[in-house]
Each structure stands twice: as structure tokens, then as C-alpha cells.
Fold this protein.
Amino acid sequence: MVLTALRQIIRALDLRSRQLAKTVGLTVPQLVVLQAVAAVGGIPTGRIAEQISLSQATVTNIVDRLELRGLLERTRGTVDRRQVQLAVTDAGSQLLARSPTILHEDFLDQFYRMEPWEQAQMLSTLQRVSSMMKAQELSDAPLVPADGLIADEDLDPDTVAGTMAH
């Protein structure tokens, strides 16, 4: 029953990811990066990677794609030219304004109607499941080859489901 429930969750995440890709033309990881940069602004890639629990290499790959689409821009620091800061462009802000939530609205509505202790209990349970599956030990580095030829859109949903859950 546990495995069935996990598979159902993975399937729901996969379907939502496909829906987002059709609606806004971004994958869940791309949307998460764009949202994280928009929330903080002027942040280095490494800090975004830490914040959303992806490797810096993966985030750099995603940032490259978002920059090519004109949704993000990189700027060099004025004091330390080695520092590269990320900022959302006007086009990126417009896309975020019209993009749906990553999770289903029904889920969010039900979650926010729960008592705070129930929300905390659910989060604790999900963190425990993640820990039991040793998900925190999984690296996302193998998902992005050194040559960067495989787009994150082309990855097997079953392989990336753990990453999308972050």
C-alpha cells in the first residue's frame, strides 16, 4: 500500500509537470529556479542551488536555458567580478505572473485548510519518508551529463520524481 501511494504521488507530480510544460513552456525545476530568483533577486547560482536542493551544476544548466529564453539575466558583481548575480527579466516576471502553481490548487486549498499541527505532521511524515528512502543522499548530478546534451525536459519522469519533490 505504501508503494502504491508513492507511485500515485509520483504520477501526480509527473502529470502536473507535463501540464506546466504545456501551459508555460517550463519544466518544474525551471519554474522552481525562476521563482527562487524572483523571490530573492540578485542571488548567486550557488545560493539558489542550496535553497532548492539541487546541485550547482544542475542549476547552472537550468539558468543557461532560462537565460537563452530571456527569462533570467546574469550580472557580474561590481566589487568582485567573479561573483555572478541572477535576476529575473521583465519577460520572466510576466511568465511568473501567468504561471499556475507547481502543486495543484486543490491540494493547496486542502492543505491550507488543515490545522497548523496537521500541516506540521504531514510535513514531518513526508520528511521521514524522504529520509527512509535516503533521498537526501541522492545526488542530482547524474541527471545532467558533462556535455549537457540531455535537456531536463528529456529526462525520465520516474528518475527525476525525487528531484521534483524538493
The chain is about 60% helix and 5% strand. Residues 141-166 have pLDDT under 50 and may be disordered.
